[in-house]
Amino acid sequence: MPQTTSVQPRAVTTAEFEAAVLARSREVPVLVDFWATWCAPCRMLAPVLERLAGAYAGRADVVKVDTDAEPEPAARYGVRSLPTLGVFRDARLVDAVIGAQPEGALRALLDRHVEQPSDRERAAAVEQARAGEVDAAVATLDRLVAAEPDRTPHLHALVDVLLDAGRADDAAVRLQHLPVNVDVDPEIVRRRARLELVRTAHAPEGGARADAARAFLDGKREDAFERWLEVLRGAGARDAVQRDLRAAFTLLGDHDDLATKYRRRLAALLH
Predict the structure, then answer these.
(1) How far is CA 65 from its chain centroid?
(2) Is 188 exposed, middle or buried (0-12, 13-18, 19+ CB in 10 A)?
(3) Euclidean distance between the first and final Cα of the chain, in Å?
(4) Would you call 34 helix, strand, or coil by DSSP?
(5) 3-state secondary structure of 41
(6) CA atoms of 111 and 151, how far apart (whole Å)
(7) Given 20, 31, 42, 259, the catalytic residue
């Protein structure tokens, strides 16, 4: 293991969590050690985290949350065992492991999220697609996915480029036969939902369902929900419309106000 300077990870309180973890994770990955003073494996892990804090300084932050003193963040993210080590990126918990881990395993965990040269290549490919060079961008992204299958942002970008170009069937192929850990990635689940709506929007003779899906994808979300509910009030396509609505709710997320409003209206309509 490389020799590095040890740095004491910052202890983060509930009041500091928003700035020190969520906001900061928009700049660099933040590894959060959810721990407690009575936890022997947590104490064993402390020197490893100090080495990681030194090794990744400037590229990732390592912080600690004492779950006895600060129970709210642990409860918010469903922490039930200690230690739990979670990686936050773009204000979301994107990766986690439970229990005392070898230093090499934690380096591998962080390396999945610390910026790599391939990330800059991915960003360039996305810009290339926006400039109209979709085939060249897809070729680059396919190569990155094959070379680094655990780096899921490559796959996210590839699927987005294909869906933006209206190539739903090609996007569907890329979403088949994924490893289990990738298959359940919330961002992959969201892209499957988007794929569902893109297919609905472009279905031959899609009628009102297609109109609703197009409205949603164009950002006219309330209009889309009203259209879907109007179809449900009719006699047909109930199962299909409910699939569309589930996809829309997935894209909006569990805590979105519009999703909450129309889940209630859907439940009232169906029952």
Answers:
(1) 22
(2) middle
(3) 61
(4) strand
(5) helix
(6) 9
(7) 42
- Alpha-carbon gap, residue 229 to 212, rounded angstroms: 10
pLDDT tens digit string along 128-161?
Answer: 999 999 999 999 999 999 999 888 899 999 999 9
Cβ 213 vs Cβ 231: under 8 Å: no
Encoded amino acid at 32, one letter: V
39, 97, 178, 258: which one is catalytic? 39
Please check whether residue 60 is in contact with residue 91, taking contact to mean a CB–CB distance below 8 angstroms. Answer: no
- DSSP codes joined into one string, 154-203: HHHHHHHHHHHTT-HHHHHHHTSS--HHHHT-HHHHHHHHHHHHHHHHT-
Residue with token string 């689940």: 189
**Residue 237 — very low, low, confident or very high, per pLDDT cuts 50/70/90?**
confident
Spatial strand order in the sheet of 84-89: 10-11, 61-66, 30-35, 84-89, 92-98
68/44 Cα distance (integer angstroms): 18
Catalogue the E-assigned strands of the chain.
Answer: 10-11, 30-35, 61-66, 84-89, 92-98
* Confidence class for position 1, pLDDT limits 50, 70, 90: very low
42 in active site = yes
What secondary structure does DSSP assign to 61-73, as a single string? EEEEEETTT-HHH
Residue with tokens 């790599």: 116
Interior angle at CA 221, CA 215 and CA 227, nearest 5: 65
At position 180, the amino acid (one-letter code) is V
pTM summary value: 0.72
Q: Are 106 and 62 contacting, i.e. CB atoms less than 8 angstroms apart?
A: no
The answer to whether 207 is a known catalytic residue is no
Give which of 141, 184, 189 is closest to 165, Cα–Cα.
141
Amino acid at 88: F
The token pair at 227 is 């259209």
